[in-house]
TrEMBL record:
Record-stated family: Belongs to the glycosyl hydrolase 27 family.
Enzyme Commission no: 3.2.1.-
Name by which UniProt lists this protein: Alpha-galactosidase
Occurrences of domain Alpha galactosidase A C-terminal (ranges): 313-394
């Protein structure tokens, strides 16, 4: 067991010394994460196919492979809260619940690796996880080594049962011990999410020096209001958070709920478009065993994914907002841009808009504009040419303006 004072000393020597350099997440990570859809369902007796267990992760992994998601880039299979026993063993080790993970974590990681996938796990910086399972406080080195020994590829470290004052020590300490294992482990921090709730600007520079990705804001739920709440918040770009994104470092507006219950088809398009513009991690939280073909096609849309994964890694921003309309754009490699107009309105029919590429803050002279979802040619425009758009209620116009 490693006591906190030792961690403190070690952490202080590394703080600010160098940026996170684990070679991972050069583009936003993609995969599947259980939390939003399955939460802390541990009732395997009554819901054997829905409970947090090795069966659930294996079943979703099988769909990732069989239905083309893995080949489209969705390679992480991430466990969230509620996987271990309520107590550590006599040596202080975390123990996967043997009733729900009878093969153990090493076997589950091996299973993922044999299929070309990666396994992610969850812990907490504080004394307990949000669901009341053992947290990593006082056990950072031991837990990092346990995860590495199991062959874990990604860690989400939550921030319950801690204080925001401890974050600046605790999160870098885990970064240090993850690095010390010698295994490249993607590191997702919930650090800023607990600070923005207190109306403060998180220390993004320090966060980016220690974490590959970080949850900035409220947890997503299965609804349009949840998605739009997140979009509105990111549109404000408080603390210029978008500037801290880039290869190796990403803001995380939370999971993709495409294929769940709460969004209409056009609203699912909005989430995909906006998460691509925001250079967000694409972690689906849905049931890939039971998903409509139209949702699957959206999740697999190559043009949407290419924008999300643009190698330059610049996060897009909101340029303009008036009543129910927002203009967003994201610079892409080669001088091109992704542009989006979101219609939040839900009264009446489509909104007709006349816009110019100048409205999206584009830089250049002439662009070839193609709608992304259907790959439909829109036209060739200079910055001042008028483009007429019709946008359905709660839908988005999403296009690539390719530099000519
Ligand atoms: C650990 O950090 C060093 C220095 O930043 C880096 O070169 C190395 O690749 C890191 N190793 C892992 C496993 O993350
Ligand atoms: C954000 O950027 C603007 C424009 O460069 C600058 O004036 C402002 O101080 C920045 N805000 C923060 C919190 O860094
Ligand atoms: C614009 O893109 C379309 C495909 O969407 C292509 O057919 C057309 O030739 C392009 N025009 C120019 C001027 O590049």
């Amino acid at each position: 067991m490693r006591m906190l004072p030792v961690c403190l000393l070690l952490a202080v020597t590394i703080l600010g010394a160098h940026a996170l350099d684990n070679g991972l997440a050069r583009t936003p990570p993609m995969g599947w994460l259980s939390w939003q859809r399955y939460r802390c369902n541990i009732d395997c007796k009554n819901q054997p196919d829905e409970c947090i267990s090795e069966n659930l992760y294996k079943a979703q992994a099988d769909r990732l492979v069989a239905d083309g998601y893995r080949d489209a880039g969705y390679v992480y299979v991430n466990i969230d809260d509620c996987w271990p026993l309520r107590a550590r063993d006599a040596d202080g080790n975390l123990v996967p619940d043997p009733a729900r993970f009878p093969s153990g974590m090493k076997a589950l990681a091996d299973y993922m690796h044999s299929k070309g996938l990666k396994l992610g796990i969850y812990s907490d910086m504080g004394s307990e996880t949000c669901g009341g399972y053992p947290g990593s406080k006082f056990y950072m080195e031991q837990d990092a080594q346990t995860f590495a020994d199991w062959g874990i590829d990604s860690l989400k470290l939550d921030g319950c049962y801690s204080t925001t004052d401890d974050f600046a020590i605790g999160y870098p300490t885990m970064a240090f011990f993850l690095n010390k294992t010698g295994r490249a482990i993607l590191y997702s921090c919930s650090w800023p999410a607990y600070i923005t709730g207190k109306q403060k600007i998180p220390p993004y520079k320090q966060i980016a020096q220690n974490c590959n990705l970080w949850r900035n804001y409220a947890d997503i739920a299965d609804s349009w209001s949840s998605v739009t709440g997140i979009m509105s918040w990111f549109g404000e770009d408080q603390g210029n958070l978008s500037r801290f994104a880039g290869p190796g470092n990403w803001n995380d507006p939370d999971m993709i709920i495409v294929g769940d219950y709460g969004l209409s088809y056009v609203q699912q398009r909005v989430q995909m478009a906006m998460w691509a513009i925001m250079a967000a991690p694409l972690y689906m939280s849905n049931d890939l065993r039971n998903i409509k073909p139209e949702s699957r096609d959206l999740l697999l849309n190559k043009r949407v994914i290419a924008i999300n994964q643009d190698p330059m890694g610049v996060q897009g921003n909101r340029l303009f907002k008036a009543s129910n309309i927002e203009f967003w754009s994201r610079p892409l490699s080669g001088g091109s841009f992704a542009i989006a107009v979101v219609n939040y309105g839900d009264a009446g029919g489509p909104v007709r808009l006349e816009v110019t590429l100048e409205n999206f803050g584009l830089d250049g002279t002439k662009f070839n504009v193609t709608e992304v979802f259907d790959n439909k040619f829109v036209g060739v425009f200079t910055l001042k040419d008028t483009m007429t758009l019709l946008i359905n209620p709660t839908d988005v116009f999403f296009a690539v303006a390719k530099k000519l």
